[in-house]
Amino acid sequence: MVAVPRSDTPGHARFRTVRARGELDIATLPELETDLVRALSDAEPPRVVVDMREVTFLDCSVVRVLLRARSTALSRAGWLVLVCAHVPVGRLLRRLGLEHHLPHYPAPDAIDTALVPAEDAN
Questions:
Q1: For residues 59 and 24, is the Cβ–Cβ distance under 8 A?
Q2: What angle do the packed helices 60-75 and 29-41 form, to 10 degrees?
Q3: pLDDT exceeds 50 at position 3
Q4: Boundaries of each STAS domain copy (predicted)?
Q5: Using CA atoms, how far apart are residues 75 and 22, in angstroms rounded to an integer?
């Protein structure tokens, strides 16, 4: 079974994190969607990191949900990025030609440098 915990970044953090692990597919999609909606509605503008470092498999249905969530974040002047440092996620994004549509970073530290405005880092 796959566990996709809820957003777990406390209070007034610079971004919300949704952690995913295991196999992500049509069976686990509802829980992931719920967590993404919660993270996207938690702050304005929405800044969401989907931590996929423990994902071992994902299918195209998950990519569709991630693209929709990113579109929602962008429409509200926010962002949604992935953290994934291993083969399954990056390989699928490359095969689908989506590596530029779903920005991804190897570690959360890279996100702070790339995306979080300087005034928020204090």
A1: yes
A2: 10
A3: no
A4: 18-118
A5: 30
Tell how strand 16-24 and strand 47-58 pair up. parallel
Name the pTM for this structure.
0.80
Bridge-based pairing state of the strands 47-58 and 79-83? parallel
DSSP string covering 30-93, please? HHHHHHHHHHHHSSSS-EEEEEEEEEEEE-HHHHHHHHHHHHHHHHTT-EEEEE--SHHHHHHH
Q: Name the residue type at position 73.
A: A
> For 81-119, what is each residue's pLDDT tens digit?
999 877 677 778 888 888 788 888 888 777 766 665 544
- Which class is 16-117 in CATH? alpha beta
Asked if the model's pLDDT at residue 78 lies above 50, the reply is yes
Name residue 68's amino acid: R
